[in-house]
Amino acid sequence: MCLNILAIDMTFSYASIALLKNKNIHTISSFNIRKKDINVYNCINSLLASKGIQVHDLDYISFSKGPGNFTGLRMSCNIAQGLSLGLKIPILCVSTFILMAEEVFKKKNFNKVIVAMQATKEKFYWGKYKRNKNGFWFGEKTESLLDKEDILKKIKMINSEYISVGSAWSKIPNKNRCIKNIKEITYPNIRYIFPSSLLHIQKNLTFSADKIEPVYLGRYTF
């Protein structure tokens, strides 16, 4: 069955919207959520119209739930809830860092990933993930907001091979040879939300508008 899924990611300063239609992914380039003249609903309508569908043709809303920017997460959560209520369709919630882990898997065929993102000058987001043979990523319970010293302690404890991605690694010295950094993956790419979204549909892991909650970890508006 072919599904139409609209995906929204606004976890950091820039946001992206994507559409999965007939197993093909279409995206709108990232835009700065701080610009007051940006109307996200207009961007959504523009994307849908360019692919010949209307908003009522959507089957699901996929929501990148964080960790990340408080303002961006609140905005994207409100949009997902509004569309879900108006269209009477369910929401799929995917960890923002799993998008980055999925990109590693698609590009490097490696299933163990550490994500570290800069939250403030002194605080960092951290998450450690592993993908099973069915395509599910585990590790959301490791998502945390840490200072540099705590990150360094966690790095020392890693004793098996991992790939690291994210914007924080230029600030964090890594002397653990088990961890290999991929510098080109520093922020989430909305395209990689769909593998987890489709798995959630298969397992009926969907939510109504009143049941979703972003993962803030800290109310930062960077």
From TrEMBL:
Pfam families hit by this protein: TsaD
Q: Does the keyword Transferase apply?
A: yes
Annotated Gcp-like domain residues: 39-134
Protein keywords: Transferase
Q: Which family does it belong to?
A: Belongs to the KAE1 / TsaD family. TsaB subfamily.
Gene Ontology process terms (BP): tRNA threonylcarbamoyladenosine modification
InterPro entries reported for this sequence: ATPase_NBD (IPR043129), Gcp-like_dom (IPR000905), T6A_TsaB (IPR022496)
Protein name from the UniProt record: tRNA threonylcarbamoyladenosine biosynthesis protein TsaB
The positions making up the signal sequence are: none
| CDD domains named in the record | ASKHA_NBD_TsaB (cd24032)
Entry's Gene Ontology molecular function annotations: transferase activity
Q: State which residue ranges cross the membrane.
A: none
Source species of the chain:
Buchnera aphidicola
